[in-house]
Amino acid sequence: MDKLDEKNFRPSEFQVGLIGMGLMGRSIATCLLAAGHPLVAIILDMAEEEEIRKGLYAHLKQLREEKITLKDPNELMEHLTLSVDFNLLSRCDLILESITENVESKKAVFKKIESVVSDKIIIGSNTSAIPISLLQEGAKHPERFIGIHWGKPAHITRFMEIICGDQTDITCGHFIKAIASYWNKEPSLLLKDIRGFITNRIFYAMLREALHLVESGVCGYEDVDRSLRNDYGSWISLTGLFRFIDLTGLPAYLTVMEDLNKELCNRSDAPKLMKDLVASGAKGTSNQQGFYSYTPESAQMWDKKFMEFNYDIRKLVGRYLHEKDV
To answer: CA 232, CA 206: separation in Å to the nearest integer?
Structure first.
């Protein structure tokens, strides 16, 4: 893949293929349509078409209301092709996969993609934890496979991680990083493949410690959430981790680490508390069972708040940070 010619690049002339139109896939599709790309989205059943179109239109309409795009949702929807026919991917300039987090299922999809697209087309996999090197195994052209980890909701957040597998041509990573700016993303490029990438490795280390505190009787769920909201929540969207340490005095953190690190939880198995919750059938707001209890109304309220908050935090960060600052 050649370096992106940003001077002459036109999203409207760059067609993207997308496999997987679940909740995450639809959010990704919204982002791509808002950027102006013609989009070929492969679905399992054409009976889903009307529901998918309604959902995408609603997302695009809200993006316009929030001034993330000024384009007419009706015009953007004209660039969408929904089909069960993988052969339509042959006309695409980039292929993205966003199906379930299962290695064999993804590999089966990759095999179908490779049978219809040219050897030079980049194939990106939306995964939050599976090593890209594992997904490359058995591919005809593993050098063009790359990981693209989108955040939720993908059409609102500026988050993206781009991950190179052991066999990935690094130029593919640089190409995706360049094109991601047209998707209103601020991507991080990982030059080495590592399970969990950046944010998930840090998130699960934090989750392990949080569950340890609750299981040990130190505090409850609400106390953990309250502390994180009122501490990390007040700075992390602006500074990240390392700049915050710069701003607040680096030597003190070394002193604390030398004493505290040896006391942090380092268990390698999943905590019993988490296992028991999942075994009981808890899925979160989707079935009103989780760390907290929900009614259908309160679950819907929290889902709505989460979406609206993402719009608000995007606007807030935009007031303080510009591309040259990050």
So the answer is: 12
* Burial category of 185 from C-beta neighbours within 10 Å (exposed 0-12, middle 13-18, buried 19 and up): buried
Closest CA relative to residue 96, chosen from 29, 14, 190, 2: 29
| Domain end among 190, 218, 241 | 190
Q: Residues 61-79: pLDDT tens digits?
A: 999 999 999 999 999 999 9
229 and 171, same structural domain?
A: no
Pick the last residue of a domain from 190, 222, 243: 190
Tokens found for residue 86: 């993988």
Task: Return the SS3 of 37.
Answer: coil
Residue 166's alpha-carbon distances to 2, 119, 180, 252, in angstroms, are: 20, 18, 22, 38
Per cent of the chain over pLDDT 70 is: 98
Answer whether 164's CB lies under 8 Å from 193's CB.
yes
